[in-house]
Amino acid sequence: MAAPLERLIEELPNKPFLVGDEGVSMSLAGAQTKLAVAVDEAGRICIPINGSPSTHILKPDGPRLSGSVQNEAFCLTLAKRLKISTPSVTTGRAGNRSYLLVSRYDRTKVGGRWRRLQQEDYCQALGRYPTDKYEANRTAIAGPTLKDMFEVTRRHMVATEIVRLLDMVIFNVLVCNTDAHAKNYAIMIRAGAASLAPMYDVMCGEVWESVAKHLAQRIADERRGDRLEARHWQQIGRQCGLNPKEVVGRVEALANLVIAEAETAASEVATMPGGPHESLDVARQAVERRALSVLTQLRFGDRHMARAVPEGDELPVEERVAAPG
């Protein structure tokens, strides 16, 4: 099976919609080359035809972002170890090419058949064009802010989902993911209820010099994750209707967990079928440095706490987030 899959991966950049393969599903949109595939009961990777739903997303390696397969596997494995919801991931090899295989969280099996589940990313939920996914866009049209996303979440979901969104925002900063825009957060829509989709499309941008260092969405007025202080987290907490003190506490807790779990997460990825990559240790070290930096900045900014947190504003996040902004 490796030979046909390797050929498909090699041809994918020149055949982004699998032109010439009659009846197959198109490859997925986005900056990375990716392909919607189905994995059968024997574990074989198949191409869905005639409208059949895919079950997984396959992301091959590439020369532009060397080590992206292990990088994303590491970030999602680390998130899972922090109890942040993620799809199941593994890596694999097809000849000389490696790939990431991500299970689709928007699929479910009913009566032996795969069914699609409804979801919307936050651009869709906010009625924005896909080209406006970044807070600062080349189109000069401002994209969704974190405040916008928290307001939608508060209107349509239970309070615990707001806490989950906060964890995802913090985690993206800790792993140096500078591509966490409004289309990389999504909402699952079911009858009478909505909830956050699992975390996806997360990579450590510090691995590559060519990747922008600015966050896709500001934390308060700061766009660099390595410059965030306690006051920035307090400010974004107030903007999003959260308890500033509890937000800072959650940042500290997740940063400590990242430091404690990063090495184990990297080891898990190294033993996946796709094997290790030299960039895996680079990503781990970058994430550990960021977490340590965040903790240092929080402590440096502790002097802001006394004047930044309003008196009596001591409700835990789970209670505070349910209140109107």
Order of helices and strands: HEEEHEEEEEHHHEEEEHHHHH
The CATH class designation of the largest domain is: Mainly Alpha
Please tell me what the overall shape is.
globular
How many strands appear in the DSSP assignment? 12
**Low-pLDDT sequence parts:** 15-30, 304-325
**Helical content class:** 25-40%
Keywords:
2 domains; Phosphorylase Kinase, domain 1; 12 strands; five-stranded antiparallel beta sheet; globular; about 325 residues
Outline the secondary-structure elements.
Blueprint: H1 2-11, E1 35-39, E2 45-46, E3 56-60, H2 68-81, E4 89-94, E5 97-103, E6 107-110, E7 113-116, E8 118-121, H3 122-125, H4 146-156, H5 159-174, E9 186-190, E10 193-196, E11 214-219, E12 222-224, H6 230-239, H7 244-270, H8 278-300, H9 305-308, H10 317-320
Antiparallel strand pairs: 1-2, 1-3, 3-5, 4-5, 6-7, 8-9, 9-10, 11-12
Helix pairs in contact: 2-7, 2-8, 5-7, 6-7, 7-8
What is this entry, summarized?
The chain has 325 residues and is an alpha+beta fold.
Describe the structure.
With 325 residues, the chain is of the alpha+beta class. It has two domains: 2-103, 2-Layer Sandwich (Phosphorylase Kinase, domain 1); 118-320, Orthogonal Bundle (Phosphatidylinositol 3-kinase Catalytic Subunit, Chain A, Domain 5), CATH 1.10.1070. It is 38% helix and 17% strand. The chain contains ten helices and twelve strands. It has helices spanning 2-11, 68-81, 122-125, 146-156, 159-174, 230-239, 244-270, 278-300, 305-308, 317-320; strands spanning 35-39, 45-46, 56-60, 89-94, 97-103, 107-110, 113-116, 118-121, 186-190, 193-196, 214-219, 222-224. Strands 2-1-3-5-4 form a five-stranded antiparallel β-sheet. A three-stranded antiparallel β-sheet has the order 8-9-10. A two-stranded antiparallel ribbon has the order 6-7. β4 (89-94) and β5 form a beta hairpin. α2 (68-81) packs across α7 (244-270), α6 crosses α7 (244-270) and α7 runs antiparallel to α8. The longest helix is centred in the C-terminal third of the chain and has 27 residues, at 244-270. The chain is globular and about 55 Å long. The termini are far apart.
